[in-house]
Specification:
By secondary structure, the chain is α/β, with parallel strands linked by helices. The protein has a single domain, classed as Vaccinia Virus protein VP39 (Rossmann fold), CATH 3.40.50. 28% of the residues lie in helices and 19% in strands. The protein is built from 7 helices and 7 strands; from the N terminus they run H-H-E-E-E-E-H-H-E-H-H-E-E-H. It has a 7-stranded mixed beta sheet. The protein is globular.
Length: 257
């Protein structure tokens, strides 16, 4: 039993991970990986966080050195396991956040997105991968969802609704990439997706089964009011800058070795 998910969400987590290991799931993952490789190569910074429904890395193309993988289950073989709504990071500390199908299958998608927005650095990027209900897969989900099987048991969030959430959380949408236009079946003759010439060279209609939305956190326009007592205290210490580590001490822990 996971300490980060309810039993229902844990069952969904097991099902969707098993589905991604299937032939169809692998095809989807190959396409998503090809797009992410193109996108992440152009984002820079000090810290990258992958919050994914899977425990395998999808950020290998990123030039960022410090890459963190969020584990959702105590059995995940990763250094850090935490609730997606209670991340053990300081405010404004992560340069790039990769959110891979997490909103589709967790209980509180808006709370999860709000928590990720909290730890996102101003002018940092958030990359959200999700299933698109406005697609052939969305139509397929209506009858298939009754079976309770993955991925049809998930909550396919409309890209427009997700963009509205991001806007409210002070993010500006940079781009939305769509992919996978056929029905949810495996085609043996289908070629591996090729994005070697760039994402913009491929078809990008808003009816693809999967979307990849890139948003950038805006700098707050609020001006903080200085506190005289704090200023006097700071004047007593060295003038050098102190860098706050992105992880709060004592919060990250393995629940079971």
């Amino acid at each position: 039993m996971s300490a980060t998910l309810t039993k229902e969400s844990m069952d969904s987590l097991v099902d969707i991970r098993r589905w991604f290991d299937s032939a169809l799931g692998e095809k989807v993952l190959q396409t998503e990986q090809a797009i992410l490789d193109q996108l992440l190569a152009g984002f820079f910074g000090y810290h990258l966080l992958q919050a994914s429904i899977r425990s395998q890395t999808l950020h290998s193309a990123s030039p960022i050195q410090n890459k963190l993988l969020l584990g959702l289950d105590v059995d995940d073989k990763v250094p850090m396991v935490a609730r997606a709504t209670e991340l053990p990071f300081a405010d404004n500390s992560i340069d790039v956040i990769l959110l891979h199908h997490l909103l589709d299958f967790l209980d509180a998608p808006l709370d999860t997105l709000r928590e990720l927005a909290r730890v996102s650095l101003p002018m940092g990027h958030m990359v959200v991968v999700g299933f698109n209900p406005i697609s052939s897969w969305g139509a397929w989900k209506l009858p298939a969802g009754l079976s309770g099987r993955a991925p049809w048991c998930g909550r396919f969030i409309r890209p427009g609704r997700l963009m509205d959430w991001l806007n409210v959380l002070n993010f500006k949408i940079d781009r939305a990439q769509y992919c996978i236009y056929g029905p949810p079946v495996v085609r043996k003759a289908a070629r591996k997706p090729d994005y070697s010439t760039g994402i913009s060279r491929n078809i990008n209609l808003p009816i693809g089964a999967v979307y990849v939305i890139v948003a950038r956190k805006q700098v707050s326009t609020m001006t903080p009011i200085p506190q005289p007592w704090r200023s006097r205290r700071l004047s007593l210490v060295n003038s050098g800058l102190s860098i706050v580590p992105p992880v709060r001490c004592g919060v990250v822990r393995r629940i079971r070795d």
